[in-house]
Write a structure and sequence with these properties.
Length: about 350
């Protein structure tokens, strides 16, 4: 395990969960969390850091001076969780997405080069092109869409989308900034010998995620049931049959722990990381689970037209990382949603202004 870890986007959902988990398991590891606190709710993590002796630096990866090598010269591992993670934000505010996710990566790579640190980069399933994902053959079942047995596209099977899925075509500005970042990382690996691992993550969720419409849908859905807010099934006939796999943050943390301890073995890998077909839900199925867990039923509107950039199904095929490491997700969707529910109950007072 590295002695000094810098987590960029460290006050966000993934970054803060990672920092706290690593500190609890490796108390001698020095952890620095770096964040611009732009996302509402991220400030709630600062007292949690203080309690565990995790350092916090308020800064922005868009600003090279905030990533001064003199400040971080003792860091040996950088974990980059700092992206603007919304596809919709790319349509509404392209400048912020481009500067954070693309210029930010350049600044991060320059820091890694100058301090000779290795880089664990959280990328996204959104690097796969929208139209190609939409052209995956589907079967409509009573509660969900499902991937059909016969496919004409490489890298798609009943297991989901694998790393061999074609990358040619458009994928949203968000997805493009992440794919461009992956390519820059590979160039820096070759040119400067920086060790790097890229995880293409699907939907990650769990306690301490401040769910919104465009990011954190499972927290949003459960919180809406708990606080009795209305929701909408958007697109694909408004039936709620669109599907995503979900990965509990604890399962991601167990993988990252393994990767940090076996970095050289996985150096250069680009890996799909997600819950997989066994841990997938449609919105309709999510509603039923939320009703069971909360004991509440809420009105859900139907809108037939999908939003820009949306896709009917995405399931991660993580068999490459599973066969390399033996890692498998162990948290079921029901267990994940129950964890979120218990977290909302415990912290209702501070969460209500954000999640309701």
């Amino acid at each position: 395990m590295a002695e000094n870890i810098l987590i960029l986007g460290g006050a966000g959902f993934v970054g803060s969960s990672l920092a706290i988990n690593l500190k609890k398991h490796h108390s001698s590891t020095k952890i620095i969390c770096f964040d611009n606190l732009r996302r509402r709710g991220s400030e709630l993590n600062l007292p949690r850091f203080k309690n565990l002796d995790i350092d916090f630096i308020h800064g922005d990866i868009r600003s090279p001076s905030d990533l001064d090598p003199a400040i971080f010269n003792s860091v040996d591992t950088i974990i980059d969780c700092s992206a603007e993670p919304s596809v919709l934000a790319g349509f509404a505010s392209p400048q912020y997405v481009l500067q954070t996710n693309l210029l930010g990566t350049i600044n991060v790579l320059e820091l890694a080069r100058q301090i000779n640190a290795r880089l664990l980069f959280l990328s996204t399933s959104r690097v796969y092109p929208i139209e190609t994902l939409k052209s995956v053959n589907l079967v409509e079942l009573p509660t969900r869409f499902s991937i059909a047995p016969e496919q004409t596209i490489s890298g798609v099977s009943h297991l989901g989308i694998a790393e061999e899925f074609p990358l040619q075509s458009y994928r949203s500005l968000y997805g493009t900034t992440k794919l461009a970042s992956e390519m820059l990382i590979e160039e820096y690996r070759q040119a400067y010998g920086i060790q790097a691992i890229v995880n293409r993550c699907g939907v990650i969720t769990g306690p301490w995620q401040m769910g919104k419409v465009d990011q954190g849908v499972f927290v949003l859905w459960l919180a809406a049931h708990y606080f009795e807010k209305s929701l909408s099934y958007i697109g694909y006939g408004g039936t709620g049959k669109q599907v995503r796999d979900l990965l509990h943050i604890e399962d991601l943390l167990s993988l990252i722990n393994y990767q940090l301890e076996n970095f050289s073995e996985l150096d250069g890998d680009v890996l799909n990381v997600g819950g997989g077909a066994d841990n997938s839900l449609s919105l309709l199925e999510t509603t039923k689970l939320c009703e069971t867990i909360t004991g509440k039923s809420i009105p859900i509107k139907s809108e037939e037209i999908a939003r820009q950039g949306d896709i009917p199904i995405y399931i991660t095929d993580s068999s490459k990382i599973s066969s390399k490491t033996g890692w498998e997700p162990i948290m079921s969707p029901e267990k994940t949603l129950r964890d979120i529910y218990n977290w909302i109950i415990e912290y209702e007072t501070i969460l209500k202004p954000i999640l309701s």
